[in-house]
Amino acid sequence: MSAQIVVRKSKDRGHANHGWLDTHHTFSFASYFDYKFQAFGSLRVINEDIVQPTTGFGTHPHQEFEIFSYIISGELQHKDSMGNVEILKAGDVQFTSAGTGITHSEYNIHPTLPVHFLQIWVKPDNPKLKPRYQTMNFPKTSKTNNLVHIISPVDDQDNSTIGINADFHMYASLLESGHKVMHTVQGAEKPRRVYIHLTSTGGELKINENTTLRQGDGAFVTEVKQGDEILFESIGDKIAEFVVFDLA
């Protein structure tokens, strides 16, 4: 395998602190724009957000995106125009296929604790889809020293993953110091690409024994194909919590 790995340091991401919201943007978003970082295949948004207690995002519209939140810590209340009301906690992944259009709000209703989560947007393979909502929980015990499959294309989906309308897979892990996990690249379409994000909760992650990520860093992996393997090793003194996106 001749994988090409390019690291995006945490400090190089877009950043805004609005008081109630401390947010980092991997790709151009809102007032942050960098022509070199607008998308990676169908992956359009990775925002790492920390929302303070009793604040949040008011009701706003979305369409033509697959939108999902990966809760790292705290609690996030979701409400949408489809009638869904839910309080999401660590380990939950909340998925919305916005399709032809929805509105939703996301609030931290906890009186004292912030909520820390990743917000991810992916362009679907087809437009004008019917909106859809799904939440699944992937507990800490399942992700510890394991790479758990969280999202898969609807055509390949089973009841252990959330289905997405794209050639896209998501995995997550909580890797203790000294432990390793392996990812096998999915999808028959060539070429494939992989993005890895190490959350800002700490830890250090080595990729293929020659690339190191520190908290908040990401890595763009190209020149890979179905069946190639990517090795991850936690080398810091804290648990490395990270997600992996495998896409066309």
TrEMBL record:
UniProt KW keywords: Iron, Metal-binding
Cofactor note: Binds 1 Fe cation per subunit.
Domain Quercetin 2,3-dioxygenase C-terminal cupin per the UniProt entry, residue ranges: 151-247
Glycoprotein among keywords: no
Molecular functions (GO terms): metal ion binding
Domain Pirin N-terminal residues, every copy: 9-122
Binding-site positions, Fe cation: 60, 62, 104, 106
Top-level lineage group: Eukaryota
Cofactor(s) the record lists: Fe cation
One Pfam family this sequence matches: Pirin
Family: Belongs to the pirin family.
Official protein name in the record: 9751_t:CDS:1
